């Protein structure tokens, strides 16, 4: 999938928001500046967040709960995590009733969430971003997005 600009990344996030459920994980992978946060912001805006969501780079986990958004969301940025064990303190394994939007998921190892929709962004030589998706069984009826 090609995302020509930030508006397209936000639009993809809005489409994701229409199909997410509590307990879902969306893993957002790619280099710095590829658009991971833009997709997450699109999801949060479509779930009802007023204003722009801050990047959770320093907080690591930014929680959102109703009525601020339609369902509980943990926006996670693992960029500063150096060892997978460091993430144990974050309590992500106990967030069964929240949507997890996880940037830099590869910091936790090969497959920390086997049922996650794994979106990988790369810079496109023609401009914009190229997105590839790893779609687990839990997402097959919801992907591709319409």
SS content category: alpha/beta
User: What would you call the shape?
Assistant: globular
By CATH reckoning, the class would read Alpha Beta
Number of domains: 1
In angstroms, what separates the terminal alpha carbons?
13 Å
- How would you write the strand order of the largest sheet? 1-7-6-2-5-4-3
Main sheet makeup: 7 strands, mixed
CATH topology: Rossmann fold
Task: Kindly provide the radius of gyration, computed on alpha-carbon positions and rounded to a whole number of angstroms.
Answer: 14 Å
- List the uncertain runs: none
What's the number of extended β-strand segments?
7
Structure description:
This protein is of the alpha/beta class. The protein has a single domain, classed as 3-Layer(aba) Sandwich (Rossmann fold). The protein has 2 helices and 7 strands, in the order E-H-E-H-E-E-E-E-E. The protein has a 7-stranded mixed beta sheet. Strand 3 and strand 4 (73-77) form a beta hairpin. Helix 1 (6-17) packs across helix 2 (36-46).
């Amino acid at each position: 999938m090609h995302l020509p600009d930030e508006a397209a990344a936000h639009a993809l996030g809005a489409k994701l928001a229409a199909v997410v459920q509590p307990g879902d994980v969306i893993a957002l992978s790619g280099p710095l500046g590829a658009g991971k946060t833009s997709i997450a912001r699109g999801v949060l805006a479509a779930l009802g967040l007023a204003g722009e969501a801050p990047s959770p780079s320093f907080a690591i986990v930014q929680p959102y709960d109703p009525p601020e958004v339609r369902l509980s969301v943990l926006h996670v940025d693992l960029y500063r995590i150096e060892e997978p064990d460091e993430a144990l303190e974050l309590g992500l394994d106990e967030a069964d009733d929240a949507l997890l939007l996880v940037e830099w998921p590869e910091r936790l190892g090969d497959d920390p969430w086997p049922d996650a929709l794994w979106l990988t962004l790369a810079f496109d030589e023609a401009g914009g971003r190229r997105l590839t998706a790893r779609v687990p069984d839990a997402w097959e009826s919801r992907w591709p997005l319409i």
